[in-house]
Structures are given as C-alpha cells and as structure tokens.
Design a protein that fits this description.
This protein is α+β, with helices and mostly antiparallel strands. It contains 7 helices and 8 strands. The chain folds into 2 domains: 100 residues; 112 residues, Alpha-Beta Plaits, CATH 3.30.70.1880. A hairpin with a 2-residue loop joins β4 and β5. Belongs to the UPF0749 family.
Length: 246
C-alpha cells in the first residue's frame, strides 16, 4: 500500500510566508487580534464590575468622592498650565512668568523629594499596636492609600519623611522605615485635604479596618487639623547610574 503523501514545509518557504504573508493570512491575523482585544476588555470590565458589586454604598460614595477630588485637581492644574502657556505666548512679561513658573516647579519638587519642611492642613493618624502585629506591608499599603486620597507630604513619628525611595521593613527590633526604628504608638502626619484623607484611611479594607481587625487587635485615631507642620527632611542621594537624556 503506498504511503500517504506528506507535505513538508521548508525553512525557506516559512521565512518567505512570514516576510510576505498572503491577504488571507493577514485577515485571519487581524481577526484574531481584534478578538483578543475584545476578550481582554470584557474580562477587565467584568472584574471591575465584580469588585464594585461587592462594595457597600458608603464605600462606593468614598470612591466617587476620591475620583471627584482627583478630577477637580487635574482640571485646576490643566487650567493653570493653559493660562501660563497663554501668558508666555503673548510675549508680555514672558521672562517674569517663566521665572515664576520655574520657582513654583522648584518648590513642588522640593516638597515631593522631602528636602524642605512643609505645613498646611491635614490629619494626624495615631496607630496603637499593643500586640506588635502591624506589618511593614500594612504600613506601606496605608501610605499608598493616603497618597491615592491626595496626600502631598507624609511623615512617620514626626522624624521620618516619606518620599519616593522610602522603604518599609522589619529587623530584630521590629518595624523600620528607611533603616530607622519605628516607635509605638506610631503616628502618621499627613498633609492634604483632611476629609479626603480621613475617608481614605477609613475605606473598607484600608488602614483602620486592618489595624482594628481581630488579627491585629489594634486601634486607630484620626485627628483633622487646619494647620500641621512636617519638619523632617531627607538628604538627597546622588544618582550613580541614571542621568538625564538630552
């Protein structure tokens, strides 16, 4: 009985097909690509729906408030940038305007990098942890949640300024932040809109609910204030590898 015919594809033919695909192959590839995009979008949308469906009414209101606050802040920044652009293009006192803009940007970067003391409205959060159950991950998550709620400056126990390269860990003596031991009770001094920061800390699954859970057994008190000061600063670390691209 003769053997069935087998079609062998050479590497040369395969390379040729990849380099110059037929119209039918291109169409199939586009259809598969579109199908994949639709599938991924549906999965993400369904995940978001499931996440929000499990939230309580108060949690949904908190999320909406935080989004509204962020939207207003972005709208304000856009308006300021457009006005600055208009003034610079008009040619009237453009040098003074550019100098003012540069000074404001310098101040903003100093606050973000933690190289200057700052003051303003905010909240003081005191964390009581009698069983020493607060972990570095819990503290890091709390800082990130506060930043999401609009925190512009944060200090731990008044003497540790939290910036981009701040790290949280634990050694033989307990919790440490950037190598400094964290004494108890812990305090977070946070500058920003007091109501938004308070709601960010009280958000379900956030700082308050985690610390006051049965696993941790601690307590949290939040004190809003119209005027707080963070005196702790950090010394800039020179860059060893990254350099600006010009």
């Amino acid at each position: 009985m003769p053997e069935p015919h087998r079609h062998h594809i050479s590497w040369q033919q395969l390379r040729h097909d990849l380099a110059r695909p037929a119209k039918g192959q291109i169409a199939v590839a586009l259809i598969l690509c579109l199908f994949s995009m639709v599938l991924v979008t549906q999965v993400r949308h369904r995940s978001a729906q499931d996440e929000y469906a499990a939230m309580s009414r108060s949690d949904l209101i908190t999320v909406l408030d935080r989004l509204s606050t962020s939207s207003r802040q972005l709208d304000s920044e856009i308006a300021d940038l457009r006005e600055t652009k208009r003034q610079l293009q008009s040619g009237a006192d453009s040098h003074k305007i550019a100098e003012k803009q540069a000074t404001e940007e310098q101040h903003r970067l100093q606050v973000m990098s933690g190289t200057t003391p700052v003051s303003g409205p905010g909240v003081t959060i005191t964390i009581h942890d009698p069983r020493d159950k607060v972990t570095s991950d819990l503290l890091l998550n709390a800082v990130e949640e506060l930043r999401d709620a609009g925190a512009e400056a944060i200090a731990v126990n008044s003497d540790i300024r939290v910036v981009a390269n701040t790290w949280f860990g634990r050694d033989a003596n307990g919790l440490v932040v950037s190598g400094k031991k964290v004494k108890r009770p812990m305090t977070l001094t946070v500058l920003g809109e007091p109501h938004a920061l308070t709601e960010g800390a009280k958000f379900r699954g956030g700082l308050v609910s985690q610390v006051e859970s049965a696993q941790v057994g601690g307590s949290v008190s939040i004190t809003p204030s119209d005027s707080l000061t963070i005196s702790a600063v950090v010394k800039p670390t020179p860059m060893s590898f990254a350099t600006p691209v010009r």
